[in-house]
Design goal:
Layout: E1 4-10, E2 15-22, E3 25-29, H1 35-42, E4 48-53, H2 65-72, E5 76-78, H3 83-87, H4 89-95, E6 109-110, E7 116-119, E8 122-128, E9 137-141, E10 144-148, E11 151-152, E12 155-156, H5 166-179, E13 184-187, E14 193-194, H6 197-206
Parallel strand pairs: 3-4, 4-5, 5-6, 10-13
Antiparallel strand pairs: 1-2, 2-3, 7-8, 8-9, 9-10, 11-12, 13-14
Length: about 210
Amino acid sequence: MEVFIKTVTIGNWKVNCYLVACDGEAWIIDPGDDFETIISNLNLDIFKLKGIINTHGHFDHIGAVADLQEKYKIPFLIHSKDKRLISQGNLYRSLAGDLTVKKTPVIDEYLDNLSSLTLQDKMLFIHYTPGHTAGGVCLEIDKNLFTGDLFFNNNVGRTDLSGGNKELLFTSVNFIFEKYKGFRIYPGHGESFILEENLIEKLKSMI
Ligand SMILES: [Zn+2]
Ligand SMILES: [Zn+2]
């Protein structure tokens, strides 16, 4: 069976929440701000949901996690180095000018020592790619790579937000350039794109 990916773009920060599904099973990736929009767009009730995985813990990517956990009784997985971002999500949201208070997610499992998860007979590989945040990961399935904010606005990701580190980000994006040429990149914000050779050259020249 083919992997099926559906995107819903949500909230003030236009975060991409992804559903990655195969033969009736699905993972939810980065469910940002708006629970209702996610529910009404992703048709979640028809899937056997395996859980929620976050590429990183920035507040704009986590707003619907707790409500989804509660409604579907599914686990939430993230790298432990982003756990402070999760526990302080409401603080960071308010600093960004949004005073909405969201329920704080409970982390059920850390990705730190996991190299892969499954989706039916497919492998969903987990790669530790810090730099945008200390606990950033990329998720790989078939020829698709979910990168979170490692790429942003036709450039590599920002490192000036909480948890950012330029050196680590460069190492992580160079790893992506080496290993994922030709893959479709699903970023945290904006349209998906194919990581073609000329794009790699252009991005390399900007870092
Ligand atoms: Zn981010
Ligand atoms: Zn973001």
